[in-house]
Design goal:
The chain is an alpha/beta fold. It folds into two domains: 126 residues, Aspartate Aminotransferase, domain 1 (Alpha-Beta Complex); 246 residues, Type I PLP-dependent aspartate aminotransferase-like (Major domain) (Aspartate Aminotransferase, domain 2). It is built from 15 helices and 16 strands. Helix 2 packs antiparallel against helix 12, helix 3 runs parallel beside helix 12 and helix 13 runs parallel beside helix 15. 51% of the residues are buried. The structure holds pyridoxal-5'-phosphate (PLP). The site of pyridoxal-5'-phosphate (PLP) has 14 residues, from helix 4.
Length: 396
């Protein structure tokens, strides 16, 4: 058994027993040279594939020229990123604030919504996950995470300011959003909950209720954004534009960068000092993001995500052991007739990495969007074997 937690490290991550040494595209090799097909994509981070040469070159060239300077100066590479984001984003959301992570982007979105409306209440959706800061934990759609926000009672008010509506429950949403609401926050396609796509109707009603009440509609696209669900953002895939939209994970292909997107009505209210960060939008992560956005567009990866979704659904639907396939694009949940965890271990033994979810029977797929048809076949064959090897777990 490999040692998965360093003795001098906080023991907070349940780890797989593999030690990756290098990766390329959809493949990864461990320290012993064993190959894995990565259907987990480093947790939805490697949308353009591991170590895309254009991203690696952009990082190297930027690092050689200027490793860092803060937001106190304008930088050409940051400006390139603002242009690239504005070109890809929904037409109503052409301005960006650059941060370091998904949680930071969501934290700033909630803070802005609360500050600009002067209201405290957040409406979120059961199963949603938005990060590990206190505001984002308090808005989580899972009690386990809301509990972490309470921190000895100090976060209670934030937790109590959240109304969490059942998943895709349009009537509950209509009722929950009122004149006290600062923001309605959700992932259009939930990740951690098990790759669950909300309906178009839910998004449309959320937009309407926010317009009626003056609340801000916030899409957390940290996991489902950057091309994964068939358009650059889920907002574009669903044709519903929120007031604020957050991106991270795949944006920097592995370098830490996130973005909070907004339109002119919000941006016009901002003044110096309202938001800030030292590292957010630093030149090296910005260079990685510019390259990533270029690849997503040039290789037409959002459209490819839909084609590959179709291939995966067609190939996997007949497999015994899969009750239902949910999700959108290359954020898919396989709802199994048994716990996912032993199946995931059996898949790793077959040389395939995939993810779990809060729903214990759901196996989550978030592969690079450069996935190939041959990888679909390889995955389906490995899954068939993993399901056969775990048939004793059915109904467990
Ligand atoms: N929002 C969603 C939908 C996520 O999936 C995650 C991370 O898994 C986050 C926010 C938090 O992002 P980060 O870990 O970069 O803070």
């Amino acid at each position: 058994m490999l040692n998965t937690v360093h003795p001098a490290e906080f023991p907070v991550y349940p780890r797989w027993s593999i030690r990756p040494a290098r990766a390329e595209g959809c493949l990864l090799w461990d320290e012993d040279g064993r190959e894995y097909l990565d259907m987990y994509g480093g947790h939805a981070v490697t949308a353009v594939g591991h170590n895309h040469p254009r991203v690696v070159r952009a990082i190297r060239e930027q690092a050689e020229q200027l490793l860092f300077y803060s937001n106190v100066v304008p930088l050409a590479i940051r400006e390139e990123l603002f242009d690239a984001l504005a070109a890809e984003a929904p037409s109503g959301l052409r301005s960006a604030f650059l941060v370091n992570s998904g949680a930071e982007a969501n934290e700033q979105a909630l803070a802005l919504a609360r500050r600009l409306t002067g209201r405290a209440k957040i409406v979120s959706v059961e199963g949603g996950f938005h990060g590990r800061t206190i505001q984002t934990l308090a808005a989580a759609g899972t009690e386990k995470y809301r509990e972490l926000a309470r921190i000895g009672g100090a976060g209670d008010a934030l937790v109590e300011a959240t109304v969490c509506v059942p998943f895709d429950d349009v009537a509950a949403l209509r009722e929950a959003v009122d004149a006290e609401t600062a923001a309605v926050l959700f992932e259009p396609v939930q990740g951690l909950a098990g790759a669950r796509a909300l309906s178009s109707e839910f998004l449309r009603v959320a937009r309407e209720r926010c317009d009626d009440t003056g609340a801000f509609l916030v899409f957390d696209e940290v996991q489902c954004g950057c091309g994964r669900v068939g358009a650059f953002t889920a907002a574009q895939a669903y044709d519903v534009t929120p007031d604020l939209l957050t991106l991270a994970k795949a944006l920097g292909s592995g370098l830490p960068i996130g973005a909070l997107l907004a339109g002119p009505s919000i941006v016009e209210t901002l003044k110096n000092g309202d938001l800030g960060t030292t590292f957010g939008g630093g030149p090296v992560p910005a260079a990685a993001a510019v390259a990533t956005l270029g690849i997503l567009a040039d290789e037409e990866l959002p459209a490819r995500a839909l084609t590959l979704e179709h291939s995966l659904r067609t190939r996997l639907a007949p497999l015994a052991g899969i009750d239902r396939i949910v999700g959108k694009g290359l954020l898919l949940g396989l709802e199994l007739d048994r716990p996912a965890s032993p199946v995931l271990a059996a898949l790793r033994a077959e040389g395939v990495l995939a993810g779990g979810a809060v729903a214990p029977n759901t196996l989550r797929l978030l592969p690079p969007l450069v996935l190939e048809k041959s990888h679909v076949t390889r995955f389906a064959t490995a899954l068939e074997k993993a399901l056969a090897a775990t048939s004793n777990e059915v109904g467990a």
